[in-house]
Design goal:
The complex is a heterodimer of chains A (195) and B (430). Chain A has 195 residues and is α+β, with helices and mostly antiparallel strands. Chain A contains 3 helices and 9 strands. Chain A has a 7-stranded mixed beta sheet. Chain A has a two-stranded antiparallel sheet with strand order 3-4. The chains are: A alpha+beta (195), B alpha+beta (430).
């Protein structure tokens, strides 16, 4: 897997979508995705991905700001805190359809102990911003997820997703996703879930 | 003390009380006598390239800055201002000429020396800068690029402390022509478990592999190889190294495949295999014939440093009370590995271990559930069974230390015996 260490779209190039029907379509896509994952239909969820999906979760650390950038927004840019990939950074996950399918299939085996019994999750997708690209859309959206496992292990996940959606035979599919989480020390049982 | 540690660990280490993992009183003794008196892993030399480069970490619960001073030497200082105690560094890593306390801006050099007290010129008597520098960690030594610190000045030299563990550390940290480096910031996550569970897992508990991780490891060639050639070794009580010691006439490819795992199947698989074979072809020059036959799995240095060789990660178990642990995990890569090979090797770390790892999520869950079990006070008189392979460990012609089969739990027995001895000794009136 070759890693692309930067966001392929810069904010300046993005054309905001104003058509309500498109925004609604994208939102409905996300709600359906969330429902599939909360219902543990992981194999069905794989159907929402393009074959060339680039899926990653950067790690996030507390960097020492560059004094040269003081006084500008770059001084505290979120991107300074992310390790996305490439040979000199240590992201949490860099995956493709093949590795995600391993996770999806594994979850339904009797001896997949971290999924058996499975967690009870509920995903909330908000702050959906949609931009037009040549063959689909680029979006930002926030997620909140409650996670409950065993009798009383309860956790909350939050973060941002930076997605690229592509139109494939009249259907929206995810071709790129970057999940930005909000912890330094991660106070959750695992980041190995589907976000 | 009201709790007697002699009642918590049997003389042969085969019975361990549940209270070892849950008692607040035991935890306070551990902070004093285990974390306060042993060599603790702090950082890797690859994290310091120029003066001012630093990382922040912990020694137990004590916050520490490790930095390269203006003289190019590495220093470790307690991260707490001499004036009001705030942390003078609040980031994970970077480069800085000064560590500045936010409250009154007292500032310190990377070696901990107090250099500026802004209020000083408004008062008559200057502050004694030397006396008010950051408190230095009294001992700091390195072995094969691994920096360890000790809060107790009277500890034996690091090399003596490691003893025969050096042979096993060498087989990884000296195997590659240009050594290894740590990439990026550590992955850190909080597990509701006692800090010793991750430690004993990495000291040699390779026996849980085909069971807890059955979906990926059961009935695999890797497990057959482990059962055929695997050993749990205790180079010195408290330390441990689980290895596969490959036959002298083994196909070099079977020995070289120590770190590539899934990387050999993906992306540039062929290039990864070739790189590993190249390393193996000259490994004996650096680590000897016997060392070159070692294909490691998990290593542990007392009390809380671990290397998961097979997945290229080093980790430390920072305690946060008896029932919580911050587990820190770094990706380690051969320094001279070409860029595309580094990326492929990372698959073997992040897909399986670290906070998002397929296998690690099962370990974290098991450690949490062990902590739940340890809290059943009705079972306080029923110790845990650590007897697997008791007395079966022996010596080996090529491998230093005591050597047992891959299911022998002597690594854990020796860990807890040493743990008991240190607390007992620490509590004796001097």
């Amino acid at each position: 897997m070759t890693a692309q260490a930067t966001n392929p779209h810069s904010e300046a190039e993005l054309i905001p979508v104003t058509a309500v029907e498109i925004i609604t379509r994208v939102q409905q896509f996300y709600y359906r995705e969330a429902r599939l994952l909360d219902n543990r239909q992981y194999q069905s969820w794989l159907g929402l991905l393009t074959d060339d999906l680039d899926y990653r979760i950067p790690s996030r650390f507390i960097p020492t700001p560059d004094p040269q950038q003081r006084g500008t927004e770059a001084y505290h840019a979120v991107d300074n805190e992310l390790e996305r990939g490439g040979p000199y950074q240590a992201p949490l996950r860099v995956e493709n359809v093949f590795t995600l399918a391993i996770r999806a299939d594994r979850a339904f085996k009797v001896n997949a102990w971290a999924d058996n019994p499975p967690p009870r999750t509920r995903r909330f997708i908000t702050n959906v911003e949609v931009f037009k690209t040549a063959d689909g859309y680029q979006t930002y959206n926030n997620f909140m997820m409650t996670y409950s496992r065993h009798d009383n292990a309860n956790f909350t996940y939050s973060g941002q997703r930076r997605d690229t959606l592509r139109e494939v035979d009249g259907e929206l599919k995810i071709s790129r996703r970057e999940v930005i989480h909000d912890w330094n020390v991660m106070a959750i049982p695992t980041m190995g879930l589907f976000f | 003390m009201s709790i007697d540690v002699r009642t918590l660990v049997s003389d042969d280490g085969s019975e361990i009380s549940r209270k070892v993992f849950t008692s607040e009183e035991v935890y306070q003794l551990e902070k004093k006598h285990i974390f306060g008196k042993n060599w603790l892993y702090l950082a890797h030399e690859s994290q310091f390239k120029k003066p001012g480069d630093f990382v922040t970490t912990y020694m137990g619960e004590t916050p520490v800055i490790v930095a390269m001073g203006d003289d190019g030497e590495i220093y470790a200082s307690i991260n707490s201002c001499s004036h009001r105690g705030l942390p003078v560094c609040r980031t994970d890593m970077g480069n800085s000429k000064r560590f500045i306390c936010p409250y009154h801006n007292w500032s310190y050099k990377p070696d901990g020396e107090l250099v500026t007290v802004p209020q000083e010129r408004k008062v008559t008597r200057p502050v004694d800068k030397k006396k008010n520098s950051l408190r230095r960690v009294p001992r700091l030594e390195s072995y094969r690029g691994l920096y360890f610190g000790c809060l107790y000045a009277g500890i034996e030299p690091l090399e003596d402390y490691l003893g025969d563990m050096r042979f096993y550390l060498d087989t990884f940290f000296n195997r590659f022509p240009n050594g290894v480096e740590v990439v990026g910031a550590p992955h850190k996550w909080l597990i509701h478990a006692n800090w010793k569970l991750p430690v004993e897992n990495q000291l040699g508990d390779v026996g849980h592999g085909p069971f807890l991780h059955g979906t990926l490891l059961a009935n695999t060639p890797a497990m057959a190889e482990l059962e055929n050639y695997g050993f749990n070794t205790v180079p010195k009580p408290g330390h441990g190294a689980a290895v596969r010691y490959m036959p002298e006439d083994a196909n070099p490819a079977d020995v070289a495949w120590g770190i590539e795992g899934m990387a050999a199947l993906m992306g540039q698989g062929e290039a990864v295999r070739e790189y590993c074979l190249n390393v193996q072809s000259t490994a004996a020059q650096r680590i000897g014939e016997n060392g070159a036959r070692v294909k490691g799995l998990t290593y542990g240095v007392f009390p809380h440093f671990s290397l998961l060789w097979s997945n290229s990660t080093i980790r430390v178990s920072h305690p946060r009370g008896p029932g919580q642990v911050e587990y820190w995990s770094w990706w380690v890569v051969p320094t001279d590995a070409p860029e595309h090979i580094r990326e492929d090797l990372r698959v073997n770390y992040t897909n399986f271990f670290g906070p998002a790892g397929l296998l690690e999520q099962e370990d974290s869950d098991a450690w949490n559930l062990q902590y739940r079990g340890s809290n059943i006070d009705y079972m306080d008189d029923v110790p845990y069974n650590y007897s697997l392979g008791l007395g079966e460990e022996t010596t080996h012609p090529d491998l230093p230390g005591k050597v047992g089969s891959c299911y022998n739990e002597h690594y854990a027995r020796q860990f807890y015996i040493k743990w008991r001895e240190q607390i007992e000794k620490g509590e004796q009136p001097s």
